[in-house]
Amino acid sequence: MRSSKSSPTKGWRKRSPKLRSQRKTLRKKCGSKCFLLPSENKFPICNKRSCKQDCKAIVSAKLRAAQWKYPTVYKRATSLINKKGCTMRSRKNSPKHKILTRSSRSRRSPRKSPRKSPRKSPRKGSRKSTRGGKCKEYLQKKIRKNMDEYKAGKYSSRAQAVAVSYSQVNKKHPSCRRVLSRK
After folding, report:
1. I need a surface site. Which of 55, 70, 157, 159 has the fewest CB within 10 A?
2. How far apart are CA 72 and CA 86, in angstroms?
3. Distance in angstroms (rounded) separating the CA atoms of residues 52 and 13
C-alpha cells in the first residue's frame, strides 16, 4: 500500500511542457529564463501556459539533474531554490519527524490485543528475574560506551545513542528481548 506522503514536485507533471513543440513555443514566448539548460531546451522551470518560474519545477529539475549527472544544472537549481525560498521537503520529512528514538517510542501506549492474557509477574526465584538483572547490566554497559561515542561525535543525539544501545544488546543477547521490550 502506498503511503500518503506529499511529494515536493506534486502537480508539476500536468503543467510541464513535455513535447518538443511545447518547449520551443515556451522558449520563443518567454526566452531562456525558463530553462536551466537553454541551449538544448532541457530542464524547463516555467509553466507551459505562463512565463512564471515554478518552485515545483525547480525542485524537479534539481532532482533530475542529480539523477542524470548534470552538475552545472544541479548548482543552478540549488541556487534558485535558495533564492526563491522553495522547499525540498514535504511536511512528513521535516526534521521534527526524522527518527523515532527509543525514548519517544516508549511514550506511546502499546496496542493491546483482546486475545492475549495479561503478563504474569515473575516469581522471586524464577529464571526470568535473574536474566533480567544481567540484561539490564549489559544494557547499562552498552549505554555508557555509546555515550562516550556520542561525546566523540559518532551519534547525533543522546537519544540515538540510547536507542542504538537497546538494539545492540537485543542483537547480541536475543534472550534479553523479552526483558528489555516495551511494556
Report:
1. 157
2. 19
3. 16
Q: Is the dihedral of CA 156, 157, 160, 165 positive or negative?
A: positive
Cβ-defined contacts of 39-48 (< 8 Å, 24+):
42/73, 43/70, 43/73, 43/77, 44/16, 44/17, 45/77, 45/80, 47/15, 48/15, 48/16, 48/17, 48/22
Beta-bridged to residue 46, according to DSSP, are: 53
Give the pLDDT confidence of 132-156 residue by residue, as tens digits. Answer: 788 888 899 999 999 999 999 988 8
Over residues 85-135, the pLDDT tens digits come to 887 664 444 443 343 334 444 445 555 555 555 555 555 544 545 567 888
Cα–Cα nearest to 8, from 77, 68, 100 = 77
> Which residues, at least 6 apart from 113, have a Cβ–Cβ distance to it below 8 Å?
none
φ, ψ dihedrals at 108, nearest 5°: -75, 150
